[in-house]
Specification:
- Helix 3 packs parallel to helix 5 and helix 7 crosses helix 9.
- This protein has 9 helices and no strands.
- The protein is globular, with a radius of gyration of 22 Å.
- By secondary structure, it is mainly α.
- The longest helix has 27 residues.
Length: about 200
C-alpha cells in the first residue's frame, strides 16, 4: 500500500513544508513492515520480489485477454496460455514462459488499445463494487477538503489496479481508509444539513 500511496503523498509536498515529514512518517513504518517479506523472497528466490513473483505478468496477460478477475494459480495460467497461444513455449523454463506472455500481452494491448481501455473501465467498476457500501459512502468525504489526500489515495489504488486483472482482496487494505472517509463524510453532511435547517437569527 505504501508504494501506491507514494504518488498521492508526493503530490502533497506542494501544499506546504509539513507535508514532507508527514509523508515520511507514513511511508517509513509501512515500508519497514514489508522489509522481512522482501528479505525472505531475496533469500529464497535470489530476486527483489516485494509482493508476488510474476503476479504482475500474470495479471497483465489475462487483462490483455479481456479478463476482469485474474487466474486462481499458475496451473490455470499455463492452461489458459496453451489454449490462447499456439506458439506458447510450454516446455521452456518458467522465466521464458513469463517473458513470452508479457510480450504477447503488450502486443495485444498495442493492437487493440480501445478494447483494452474499455476492459480497464470494466475492471474499475468491478473494483469499486467489491465493497459497495463503504466505497459509496466514502464519496461523502468530498465535503471535507482536508480529506482530499486520502480520497486521492483510494482513487489512485482503484485506477492503478484497473490496468490489470484483479481480485477483490487487492482492495481490502483500503477498507479502513474507506470507512474513515465514510464516517467523516457522513458527519460533515449531517452538519451541513443541520446548518441548512437552522433558522437565521434575527438581526
Amino acid at each position: 500500500l505504501a508504494l501506491f500511496a507514494a504518488p498521492a503523498l508526493l503530490l502533497g509536498l506542494r501544499r506546504g513544508t509539513r507535508a514532507g515529514p508527514r509523508a515520511a512518517a507514513f511511508l517509513l513504518p509501512v515500508s519497514l513492515a514489508l522489509t522481512p517479506w522482501v528479505l525472505r523472497n531475496a533469500v529464497q528466490f535470489r530476486e527483489f520480489v516485494p509482493f508476488e513473483k510474476h503476479a504482475a505478468t500474470s495479471n497483465l496477460y489475462t487483462a490483455s485477454l479481456g479478463w476482469v478477475d485474474t487466474v486462481k494459480g499458475v496451473a490455470e495460467l499455463w492452461d489458459v496460455a496453451r489454449r490462447a497461444e499456439p506458439a506458447f513455449p510450454e516446455t521452456a523454463p518458467p522465466a521464458e514462459r513469463y517473458a513470452f506472455l508479457r510480450a504477447r500481452a503488450v502486443e495485444r494491448v498495442a493492437a487493440s488499445p480501445v478494447r483494452y481501455a474499455w476492459d480497464c473501465l470494466r475492471r474499475l467498476a468491478h473494483g469499486l463494487a467489491a465493497f459497495p457500501l463503504p466505497t459509496a459512502a466514502a464519496a461523502l468525504a468530498l465535503l471535507i477538503p482536508a480529506a482530499a489526500p486520502a480520497s486521492a489515495l483510494c482513487a489512485y489504488v482503484f485506477v492503478a489496479h484497473a490496468a490489470l486483472s484483479i481480485e477483490a482482496r487487492y482492495f481490502e487494505p483500503l477498507l479502513p481508509t474507506l470507512c474513515l472517509l465514510a464516517g467523516g463524510g457522513a458527519a460533515a453532511a449531517a452538519r451541513r444539513l443541520a446548518g441548512a435547517r437552522m433558522p437565521a437569527s434575527p438581526g
